[in-house]
Design goal:
- The chain is mainly alpha-helical.
- The protein has a single domain, classed as Hydantoin permease, CATH 1.10.4160.10.
- It is 76% helix and 2% strand.
- It has 20 helices and four strands.
- The chain has a two-stranded antiparallel sheet. Strands 3-4 form a two-stranded antiparallel ribbon.
Length: 467
């Protein structure tokens, strides 16, 4: 009896649709909309997409099904799930739980930037966002980023405090379909664009589409392909939100009769679809108005290049800009909700703290660290060279620690635990217990024991600057 009441208190998704929408919402975040198009443009378009899709169906699938099954089997968040499966792996659980703890403050800082832009477009200030130095001016100002970060964090906490059904599931079911419709709409619009520059050269969205989709193997070296592969793995990792305790947390809310296999196929489909559409929405538009050069903006793509594109469209650009930033806000919120939920589930499972108190603790902590992140561009500004060759501020350091160092370690450790200590059958039995077929079983065993940990090891070496 006590066991059931404990589960009842944790909450659960009502069925597979709610779970798929929440998990896809978690997977579809700033990473898909912001990093994917930039990496695709950097790595020869279609070549990157081709590699990414193959990885999603093998590498991504392996990590996703492992974590969701671990969550459902233990009915625990990451902090306690690992130790429950094998005591020796309790430290991995702690590390997995620390990843969202590090990510939440800086993710909400970026979420605040998105809200600021949305507000600018809604209040008729859109034209200024296209000015050179607008973005830098915003992030280096003292108070504005902090206020927006706190507003964004409040929205996130509001959803999490409402619980699994009335919060996460309810809002994911509303936001995800709207998000997909908006992205498809803007993508189609992006393809109809054309512009003529001062030299009389006309560029169209369809030409941009070709650059985005058609693989370009020109000058591709073995080293170049290796770097592309690492970029694709890194992106996928971030994109499907594995190795950060989120999928274990969401898996723990899935009822035993839900068909995990079909749910996971749907999550993979949604995630890859949105990543591809994000590129379709962004790359043709940027190509049309600023040529190939515009695509090398890196992370500034969303905050620097796109507002210029919206400005170049005239009046319709403001409307499209509003829709775009609404889309990005929805994508960001469904993800930051899952990041906060992973932290909250740990506090609830390990220390038996109520949901309300757990959310309050997470919120206070995240606001304090979030303020430090915001001040990293002015008061606490520094330039720290990282082992992987980039130069970092506070936000970049947290991103590097969580994404480049801790996540690969967590995932490698998970593969060792499942592949070699517990045995892949632990996961296979969990998936098939609802009568579901495990369709890629042979592939799964090879991936979890050998291929995935080896790829992750290379990713870790690259992050540490050894490769």
């Amino acid at each position: 009896m006590s066991n059931n009441s404990h589960h009842h208190k944790r909450g659960s998704f009502t069925g597979s649709l709610g779970f798929v929408m929440a998990a896809a919402g978690s997977a579809v975040g700033l990473g898909n909309i912001w990093r994917f198009p930039y990496l695709a443009a950097k790595n020869g378009g279609g070549t990157f997409i081709f590699v990414y899709i193959i990885l999603a169906l093998t590498f991504g699938f392996t990590l996703l099904i492992t974590e969701i099954s671990m969550g459902r089997k233990t009915k625990q968040g990451p902090l306690t799930a690992y130790g429950m499966l094998n005591k020796k792996f309790a430290p991995t659980g702690f590390l997995a739980w620390m990843v969202p703890v590090i990510i939440l403050p800086y993710y909400c800082t970026i979420g605040g930037w998105v809200l600021k832009y949305l507000f600018a477009f809604l209040t008729g200030d859109a034209i200024n966002t296209a000015a050179d130095g607008y973005f830098t001016g915003h992030i280096t100002s003292q108070w504005s980023p902090i206020i927006w970060m706190i507003i964004y964090m409040g929205l996130t906490a509001f959803v999490v405090i409402s619980g699994v059904n009335k919060g996460i599931e309810k809002y994911s079911r509303i936001l995800m379909p709207i998000l997909i419709v908006l992205i498809i709409g803007i993508s189609f619009f992006s393809l109809t664009l054309h512009s003529t520059d001062a030299d009389g050269i006309t560029r169209t969205g369809l030409e941009g589409l070709k650059i985005y989709l058609i693989p370009n193997f020109e000058g591709m070296t073995i080293k170049g392909f290796f770097l592309l592969l690492m970029d694709a793995i890194g992106q996928l990792f971030f994109s499907i939100s594995v190795a950060m305790g989120i999928m274990i947390t969401y898996g723990s809310y899935v009822k035993d009769d839900v068909n995990l296999m079909s749910s996971i196929n749907q999550i993979e489909f949604f995630d890859t679809l949105v990543a591809l559409l994000a590129g379709l929405m962004i790359i043709p538009a940027i190509y049309t108005f600023s040529g190939i050069e515009g695509m090398s903006a890196g992370p500034g793509l969303m905050f620097v290049s796109l507002p210029k594109v919206f400005a170049a469209m005239g009046k319709v650009g403001i409307a499209i800009g509003i829709l775009f930033f609404v889309t990005v806000t929805f994508a960001a919120i469904t993800s930051s909700v899952s990041v906060m939920e992973a932290i909250v589930s740990g506090l609830m499972d390990k220390w038996k703290i109520s949901r309300n108190k757990s959310v309050a603790l997470s919120l206070i902590y995240a606001i304090v660290v979030g303020i430090i992140v915001c001040l990293g561009y002015n008061v606490f500004y520094f330039e720290l060279p990282l082992p992987n060759g980039s130069v970092a501020q506070v936000l970049d350091v947290l991103d590097y620690l969580s994404n480049m160092i801790m996540m690969p370690i967590v995932a490698i450790s998970t593969c060792i635990m499942v592949g070699w200590v517990l045995g892949p059958d632990t996961i296979i039995n969990e998936v098939t217990k609802s009568g579901a077929k495990f369709s890629r079983k042979g592939l799964y065993i090879v991936m979890v024991k050998y291929v995935t940990p080896i790829l992750l090891f290379f990713l870790l070496l690259q992050s540490l600057g050894i490769l």
